[in-house]
Amino acid sequence: MMYLLYGKEEFLIQKQVKKIALENNLQDLDINEYQMDTVSIKEAIDDAETISFFHDKKAVILNQCSFLTTTSKKNIIEQPIELLEEYIKHPNSSTILICIVNSEKLDERKKIVKTIKKEATVIECNQISNINQFIHELFKNYSISQENIDLFQKRVGNHLELLEQEAEKLKIAAIDDKVITTELIDDLTIQTIDLDIFSLIEAIVNKQKEKAMMMLDEMMKRGEEPIMVLIMLANQFRIIYQAKELYQKGYTEKNIASMLNLHPYRIKKALEKGRMFSNDILLIYLKQLANLDYQIKNGEINKRLGLELFLLGL
Question: What is the CATH number of domain 193-312?
Answer without folding.
Answer: 1.20.272.10
